Amino acid sequence: MSAPIDFSLDNFLPYKLVKTAEHVAGGLARLYEEEFGITRPEWRILATLGNRDGVKAKELSAETSLDKVRVSRTLASLESKGYVCRVRDQNDHRAAYLHLTLKGKELYQRIVPRALEWESEMLAGMSAAQYRDLFKALDLLLAKADGVTPSPL
Amino acid sequence: MSAPIDFSLDNFLPYKLVKTAEHVAGGLARLYEEEFGITRPEWRILATLGNRDGVKAKELSAETSLDKVRVSRTLASLESKGYVCRVRDQNDHRAAYLHLTLKGKELYQRIVPRALEWESEMLAGMSAAQYRDLFKALDLLLAKADGVTPSPL
DNA sequence: TATTGTTATACTCTATAACTATA
DNA sequence: TATAGTTATAGAGTATAACAATA
């Protein structure tokens, strides 16, 4: 007879990560859905364009971890809300540069401080060192999960 | 004119968490979907019952972060696959104790070692202290996200 | 032929409410 | 009235494939 296995879901890394991510990101999502009327993918694209205006859809897809289908649909909805406009690339008529409109920039300027405020509340009990180590650990896991073995720290 | 905002999605905690969780948990999910033919919620319930046999659906819901609807449906599919059986509570005929069948226990015994092996590969580059700190940080965030202010570490 | 982006389709997940049978 | 669990339904998210326009 084999020895009983000692395994608890609650101490299992993937479950812990998913649960924490859902609760943390879910709280913020409620904030910008209820307070600013935008969805999660809309927020991701808005955040990216606020930081790097004029990128193309393909780059947006890489930056936001949204596939090209979702980017296309999210851009359509952001455009219909008046937050984003497209400027066709004159050298490659398939693609377009994406820009925030004035209204989009204004929304970005209102959301970011609230998001940062929310983040710092979330991190309130954590030291700067803990925060740095958390990000380091997450980066390590991300790289491992994607099959990249990073150079040692 | 206001100063330009320095904000990058990639350094923003909720995004980082979600992205890491998706990549990490996604890799494992492929493992037990392809190798063992069970879905994520099925795995969560199997893992819980393997550890705490005979709990009721309501407790399963709390343990697995799945709502009662999903628990009910997942139990139905696990039952139809022959991994789980129900024993009505004689004192409360609304509820039932959930048990792994022999086939369910056998599956659990095969999956857990693979899952732990996969986890340790994922944690390979991380020291014991880093691992402990990561879990501590995740617990802290989870408690904060759920609005509980835990006692200081 | 390959690439950018869009449209279509189907499948899963999530959230809610309505329902049953018990208590 | 409240609770354990089920069924029904609609909305959102996800994955894939087919497609149009352009390179």
TrEMBL record, chains A, B:
Superkingdom field: Bacteria
Signal peptide per UniProt: none
HTH marR-type domain span: 10-143
PROSITE patterns per the UniProt record, alphabetical: HTH_MARR_2
Keywords, sorted A to Z: DNA-binding, Transcription, Transcription regulation
Recorded GO MF terms: DNA binding; DNA-binding transcription factor activity
Pfam family, one: MarR_2
Record carries keyword Transcription: yes
Transcription recorded as keyword: yes
The protein, known as: MarR family transcriptional regulator
